[in-house]
Amino acid sequence: MILVPLPFVVSLLLLTILVQAVRRDEEGLRANPLFVALIAAYSVQSVLVGLRWGYEWRGVLPLMSPLAALIAPLAWASFRSLTREEPAAMTTLWPHLLPAAAVVALMVLWPDPVGAVIVAVFAGYGLALLWTARLGPNGLVSSRLDGVLRSHRAMQITGVALLASAATDILIGLDFAWGGGAHSGMLVALGNVVALLVQGKAASIAGAGLAEIEADDPNERPDAPTGATNEDLTTAALVERLMREQEIYRDLDLNLERIARKLRRPARDVSSAINRAHGMSVSQYVNTYRVKRARQLLKETADPITKVMFDAGFGTKSNFNREFQRVTGMTPSAYRRTGDEASAVAELLGEATL
């Protein structure tokens, strides 16, 4: 029986996720090449790990270290792109190639500290991601509104995973120093399982950030309106005008940055204004308009619920159902049945009076 090392399975799953998502383009990965590169890098690294630890092929070692030093900066750049109102310029990205370049130089000139440098890179970028995540979901101005909560959570998970990878490397080093590497294989396998989870999340984030919409956590309660200034009320009124007159909530690709651009105001000012004036997040605010539109269509048309969902601006049925229940307390199908029953009763009453 041929045994396939776990890292190869991880790599195959990652490639499957990547190829299917790009072919369907449902996840919007083509719109964010950084996430494509991130998933591809993890897939290649998993293959290299499988060759090294599954088949004891040491020839891949010169490739593993530079790629490892590139993955953490790539993860940072990918998630950081969701916090920018404009795409990052190359001048802001190239400095993040320096860790990999430093590792290559050290491998030639002084190999001893390479492991420590990689640990420092993972720890540093992991902390940087968590520090950026402290701004909350509203800091991800380029994320599509309903996916912003999931994007934020995935950023946190990725930051923690990078720190866990650094800790795993330290444990492997200690295992070699004290136990001759007796447990290193198990540690590497466990680390790749974590990598699979992180990369699966990264794949969904690429979509959630730039394509797929996800509802807010139903258990999360928005802050109550507090201290709305005149400027906040003015901004909130302008947003409401956009919703009513231009119906921008029907745009499947709508995000905070697009709203802010239409108003020619900073994205954070728009987010803060809606939060303070209405006591809800931007995504909840927009989804309330979408649900209102869906309710109207469910009452006035016989269109399939899926068509109603897209026409109202929702991207997935699960998000549509969650937000519809948040606003109305029932599912779209139940809401339509209620309307049909009310119409039937009205018709019977009308016939009875004739």
Describe the structure.
The chain crosses the membrane at residues 6-22, 34-55, 61-79, 91-110, 116-133, 154-174. The protein has 354 residues and is mainly alpha-helical. The protein has 2 domains: 6-210, Rhodopsin 7-helix transmembrane proteins (Rhopdopsin 7-helix transmembrane proteins, Up-down Bundle); 230-353, Orthogonal Bundle (Arc Repressor Mutant, subunit A). 72% of the residues lie in helices and 0% in strands. It contains 15 helices and no strands.
Amount of beta strand? under 5%
Largest beta-sheet characterization: none
Kindly report how far apart the N and C termini lie.
82 Å
The SSE string, one letter per element, is: HHHHHHHHHHHHHHH
* Oligomeric grouping of the chains: single chain
What topology does this entry show?
Elements: H1 6-24, H2 33-55, H3 61-80, H4 90-93, H5 98-109, H6 114-133, H7 148-179, H8 184-210, H9 230-246, H10 256-263, H11 267-278, H12 282-300, H13 305-312, H14 317-328, H15 332-353
Keywords: DNA-binding, Membrane, Transcription, Transcription regulation, Transmembrane, Transmembrane helix
Protein name: AraC-like DNA-binding protein
Transmembrane segments: 6-22, 34-55, 61-79, 91-110, 116-133, 154-174
Quick summary:
This protein has 354 residues and is mainly α.
State the main characteristics.
Arc Repressor Mutant, subunit A; Homeodomain-like_sf; elongated; 354 residues; Rhopdopsin 7-helix transmembrane proteins; transcription regulation; 2 domains; DNA-binding transcription factor activity; DNA-binding; HTH_AraC; mainly alpha
